[in-house]
Amino acid sequence: MEIQIRDSGAACVVAVAGKLDALSAGDYEKAMNQLIADGKTRFVVDFSELSYISSAGLRVLLATAKQLKPKGGLAVFANLQGNVQEVFEMTGFCTILGVYDSVDAALAAL
């Protein structure tokens, strides 16, 4: 898994590529925890290059959302593809987390 981070002004855009599974979930969580510790509270997570997400990956997405809530923060997700989109739909994550067709749409929603 690869993570690229850029500040768009309104939010931090976190692009995740590869697989978000039991092996890589800790790396994602560590990166997000560091950004939150640095005072960032608004995130658009770009999954355009994410090919797979497991239950461990879903768990860290929820953990981040829970960590942001008391800070008035928010993480939304953009560009879900194929298997990742299916997993979000099957698990109901599309209804509990903000999901958008593009990074621009996600940024506009924030």
Topology of this protein?
Blueprint: E1 2-7, E2 12-20, H1 25-37, E3 42-53, H2 55-68, E4 74-78, H3 82-91, H4 93-96, E5 99-100, H5 103-109
Parallel strand pairs: 2-3, 3-4, 4-5
Antiparallel strand pairs: 1-2
Helix pairs in contact: 1-2
Question: What does this 3D model show about the protein?
Answer:
- The structure is a single chain.
- This protein has helices at residues 25-37, 55-68, 82-91, 93-96, 103-109; strands at 2-7, 12-20, 42-53, 74-78, 99-100.
- The chain is an alpha/beta fold.
- It has one domain: Transcription Regulator spoIIAA (2-Layer Sandwich).
- A five-stranded mixed beta sheet has the order 1-2-3-4-5.
- Helix 1 packs parallel to helix 2.
- The longest helix is centred in the middle third of the chain and has 14 residues, at 55-68.
- The radius of gyration is 12 Å and the shape is globular.
- The chain starts with a strand and ends with a helix.
- 28% of the residues are buried.
- Class from helix and strand fractions: alpha/beta
Q: What is the helix/strand order?
A: EEHEHEHHEH
Shape-level CATH architecture? 2-Layer Sandwich
How many domains make up the 3D coordinates?
Answer: 1
CATH superfamily: STAS domain
- Number of extended strands: 5
Content of β-strand:
25-35%
